[in-house]
Amino acid sequence: MSSFWTIFIVVLVVINIIGCVWLLWWTSKRRPGEPETTGHVWDGDIREYNKPLPKWWINLFYITIVFTIGYLAWYPGLGSFDGYGGWSSTKQHDQEREIEDAKVAAALSPFDGMSIDALASNSKAVEYGRSVFAANCATCHGSDARGAKGFPNLADHSWQWGGDPQTILTSILEGRQAAMPPMAAVLGSDQAVLETAVYAQSLSGTKVDPALAARGKPRFETVCAACHGANGRGNPALGAPDLTDDIWLYGSDFDAIRTAIVQGRAGNMPAHKELIGETRARLVGAWVWSLSKRSTDGEQAGAP
């Protein structure tokens, strides 16, 4: 805060305090003669007198003013003046956070260093993981971890970067940066983009124009296969998704696929190591991995 505003606040506070003291002194004066009236009259002869407050009541107001002066001196209530007590909301917040962090660390310490698959078999660890997820991850992935357009579903069997426990932990701790570059210029024409998009759409079993798909196949194998593979099954090492299943992060309709080819995609999963620490990251990973594992086990159980 600038010195001008500090002076302005100090002067304003001083004027108000002096004004309150003067008002109390003036209204508490006992004047000689007949008591003044307020001018209010009821039933012809009942008048409201303007008599001073009792001394004990006036003294309480004076004590309040003295308390106010002491409070403003001890706490930072006068502009940029820090106060003699050295208190600040930031310091109080940090102190209270340290206390709560210590409690959380003590509660989570039994899970330090445990692997995600081991934690997933511990019901208490999984419950902790769900709570941490709700506080830190649900904004993007949803409270049920099923994601939304542009944010992957973490409860199914499809993992863009790999779904083994260690890879999930790496994704949480270090984050991920997906990069689908714009490919329209490489393909060379709108017709080439159309044909490639149609072929990509056909990989997941969608009914498309077979002639367009046939012309798009060699373009795909020349331009797109470097990341997605010649068969379109993707590459978890690069974060290139499998295009042959029915799981599409941005949508499987033609317009969504064409937009991805023309404009590219740039998904970002921020690193959470500094935000939640390694133990809580492991707990989150355990809960998410347990959801995915149930999904995978369910598919296998239902397979012929």
UniProtKB/TrEMBL annotation:
The record's section on Gene3D superfamilies has:
6.10.280.130, Cytochrome c-like domain (1.10.760.10)
Q: Which Pfam families match?
A: Cytochrome_CBB3 (PF13442), FixP_N (PF14715)
An annotated GO BP = proton transmembrane transport
Q: Which organism is it from?
A: Pseudomarimonas arenosa
Annotated positions binding heme c 1: C137, C140, H141, M269
Residues forming the Cytochrome c domain are: 124-204, 211-292
Q: In which pathway does it act?
A: Energy metabolism; oxidative phosphorylation
Q: Which PROSITE patterns match?
A: CYTC (PS51007)
Its Gene Ontology cellular component terms are: plasma membrane
Q: What is its main location?
A: membrane
Cofactor remark from the record: Binds 2 heme C groups per subunit.
List locations, semicolon-separated: Cell inner membrane
Is-annotated flag, keyword RNA-binding?
Answer: no
Which cofactors go with this protein? heme c
Task: Briefly state the protein's biological role.
Answer: C-type cytochrome. Part of the cbb3-type cytochrome c oxidase complex.
Residue ranges annotated as transmembrane are 6-25, 56-74
Q: Which gene encodes it?
A: ccoP
- The residues listed in the UniProt record as binding heme c 2, with positions renumbered to this chain, are M180, C224, C227, H228
Subunit structure and binding partners: Component of the cbb3-type cytochrome c oxidase.
* Single GO MF descriptor: oxidoreductase activity
- Record's protein name: Cbb3-type cytochrome c oxidase subunit
